[in-house]
Amino acid sequence: PSFYKTLFGMLVVVALQNLVAYSVNMADNIMLGSYSQDSLSAASTVNQVFFMVQQFALSIGNALVVLAAQYWGQGRPEPVRTLTGIALKLGIIISVVLVAVCAIFPRPLLYLFTDSPQIVEEGVRYLSLIQWTFALFILSNVLMAALRSVGTVNISFYISVVSLIVNVAINYTLIFGKFGFPEMGILGAAVGTLTARVLEFLIVLIYILKFDKKTQLFTGGGLWKRDPALRQDYTRVYIPIMCSQVLWGISVPMQTAILGHLSADAIAANSVATTFYQYLKVVVIAMSSVSAVMIGNAIGRGDRKRIKSDARSMAVIDVAIGLALGIALFLLRGPLLSMYSLTETATSMAMNLILVMSVVMVGMSYQMPVSFGIIQGGGDTGFTMKMNLISTWCIVMPLSFLAAFWWKLPVEAVVLVIQSDQIFKGLPTFLRFRKYQWMKKLTQE
Predict the structure, then answer these.
(1) Closest by alpha carbon to 154, among 204, 196, 199, 193?
(2) What is the rounded distance in angstroms from the CA atom of residue 39 to the CA atom of residue 45?
(3) CB 173 within 8 Å of CB 179
(4) Cα–Cα distance for residue pair 329/277, rounded to 1 Å
(5) How far is the C-alpha of 7 from the C-alpha of 150, rounded, in Å?
(6) Could you report the per-residue pLDDT of 65-82, keeping only the tens digit for each?
(7) What is the dihedral of CA 371, 374, 378, 382, to 10 degrees?
């Protein structure tokens, strides 16, 4: 009972947090889309840059969780504090580099994603403020990862809710010039996002300083303690996670670009279908995060029999969740598409794409929580890096280009090829999982 209470308690909170965070971007798109098409396109282009920032933030935080969760399972908060300090220092270094690149080379950077001078100029205005949110986002994510590794997840949900409310309110006020404020357009959206990021960072900082009784990060100087051995351990875990996240992150805009070169109906249908898919995907991402924490804690406690039992239970739950999400996406496709004004061709195409993604959802719901949650969370970070490198760059990307431009397959078939790794990665994940070689104690005595 305690296992299920902990698992589903954390899962619900983390899923809601991810849902609210995803809704922040949706709100931005909706409001900028109703303001002007150029503003929406410019913000979407800059968000491609932010997507890469997210991959760095996730890799830093996930590496911290892998190690810190094991130490917390042993009842040792001091290494958790030191590891958080190491992750924060790395986050600061990466933030400085990213902000410097955006500040010095804004136009060449945006021209990587669009060839429209008008969109680039509008994007440069947006990026001039948004770039300062990158550092705040990375540091906030590191602190929330430290809290997540010890089982504290509620604060992340509250932060996301505050961020959504503040961002939407400021966007509405400044984009359209409401309540006597000037009409700032895309800069108003940037101000809203920057304000929300500042608040996120301040809230998590105040929580850690005043209310956190577990990690006590700023107590005893452990946060900034120099520990070469722990830094070496963190680096060994971080590098494969970072390579996996960033290489996958690079492939995503390339996959979008493939569909973007097919037809206007394909772009619209994929955009609508992906929106529904991403909303349900937050549950899968949450399961991955929760699995990593719980397996890391269990390995820290050292009960191998219990680790295997918990992992098998999670794997079965993953399949059940995938089936439920796939069926829900399939059954809701009609009502959801009725909210959009698409051409008959685009509507039919979107209907077929949602059917494809319903099947993909089942495969992803197993392989992602097991590979990124259980296996990577258990200390085996090299497996996920190798699997994603081979599947994405040696199989999916070449086949996607061939399917779209050489074989000229229907759009539905191209999307199936692009998403196919979410299904076929299930077999190597299952085989690796059943060997239990991923149970690696990474802590020092």
Answers:
(1) 204
(2) 10
(3) yes
(4) 7
(5) 13
(6) 999 999 999 988 899 999
(7) 0
Spatial CB neighbours of 79, under 8 Å, sequence gap ≥ 6: 67, 68, 71, 227, 230, 443, 444
- The model's pLDDT over 149-172, given as tens digits with 9 standing for 90+, comes to 998 988 988 998 998 899 899 989
Mean pLDDT along residues 310-330: 94
Write out the two tokens for 340.
């959009």
Residue that has been written with the tokens 């590794």 in this structure: 149
Q: Is the pTM of the predicted complex or chain greater than 0.70?
A: yes
Quick one: DSSP state of residue 223?
A: G
Residue pLDDT, tens place only, 325-371:
999 999 988 888 887 777 788 888 888 989 999 999 999 999 999 99
CB 32 within 8 A of CB 46: no
How far apart, in whole angstroms, are the C-alpha atoms of residue 288 and residue 286? 5
Q: Measure the CA–CA gap between 163 and 157, rounded to whole angstroms.
A: 10
- Identify whether the C-beta of residue 101 lies closer than 8 Å to the C-beta of residue 330: no
Q: Is the pLDDT of residue 317 over 90?
A: yes
- Tokens (6 digits) for 337: 């598409």
Residue with tokens 């009409």: 183
Residues in the chain: 445
For the CA atoms of 77, 82, 88, 90, the dihedral, rounded to the nearest 10 degrees, stands at: -140
Where do the H-state alpha helices sit in 225-303?
228-260, 264-301
Of 384, 373, 361, nearest to 313 by C-alpha is 373
Residues 6+ apart with CB under 8 A from 46: 110, 123, 126, 127, 130
**What is the token pair recorded at 90?**
């790395």
**pLDDT computed for residue 313 by the predictor:** 95
What number is the average pLDDT over the span 239-258? 83
Q: Is 1 exposed, middle or buried (0-12, 13-18, 19+ CB in 10 A)?
A: exposed
Under 8 Å CB-to-CB from 400, ≥6 apart: which residues?
Answer: 255, 258, 414, 417, 418
User: Do 318 and 366 contact (CB within 8 A), yes or no?
Assistant: yes
* CB-neighbour burial class of residue 211 (10 A; exposed 0-12, middle 13-18, buried 19+): exposed
The single residue listed with the structure tokens 């009842």 is 75
